[in-house]
Specification:
mainly alpha; 9 helices; 67% helix; globular
Length: 190
């Protein structure tokens, strides 16, 4: 499945068969949060991060390893290259809006958890400066998810997704600038 786009429902089924109890949205959010702070999640390190987060040994994740690698490459690493290519990993539009809202909320929980799991002292200072953005993401994680499938609610859902996507990318840019600044400082460890 490396070259092919991974669909959300396919990943749900793969997670179920592997015994992964978190949703693909939550895991994607968590990995994005870690990536935003500077963790490079490819290869065995990425698999260990996934293993730790879903509380399963890496051996039990081998059956879905290739798809996890594709998910990381297609949906996280693109953040390094192009804002417009970065998308949240959420259920497809044909799924009930209440389910999609629930998964968006858990994506935000995972993202905030990923950020929190990786920040050091300097990153924590930056997060203090980004408190409004982080507070907004907390609010999205607490969204009312029992809503009707109306055109108005669909439009609001699309706006919220775009806000979350841009907030994640903005934080990524901020942390990347901080990392560059730290590299340029005299006496910085490289």
């Amino acid at each position: 499945m490396n070259a092919q786009e991974i669909l959300y429902q396919q990943m749900v089924e793969q997670f179920d068969s592997a015994g992964v109890i978190v949703s693909p949205a939550e895991l994607h959010g968590h990995l994005c949060g870690r990536h935003v702070v500077g963790h490079h999640l490819q290869g065995s390190f990425g698999l260990r991060v996934v293993s730790d987060y879903v509380d399963l040994p890496t051996s039990e994740l081998q059956s879905i390893y290739e798809d996890l690698e594709s998910l990381i490459a297609q949906r996280i690493m693109v953040m390094d290259e192009d804002l417009f290519s970065f998308r949240l990993f959420l259920p497809e539009d044909n799924v009930a809006l209440s389910v999609r809202l629930t998964e968006l909320a858990v994506w935000c929980e995972g993202f905030l958890n990923g950020l929190g799991a990786t920040v050091g002292d300097e990153e924590a200072k930056l997060m203090q400066a980004e408190q409004d953005t982080l507070a907004d993401l907390v609010e999205v994680s607490r969204l009312e998810t029992e809503v009707d499938d109306t055109d108005e609610n669909e439009a609001l859902y699309a706006e919220i997704i775009e806000f979350v996507r841009l907030a994640a990318f903005n934080l990524f840019d901020q942390f990347r600038a901080l990392a560059e600044q730290q590299k340029e400082e005299p006496g910085a460890i490289h």
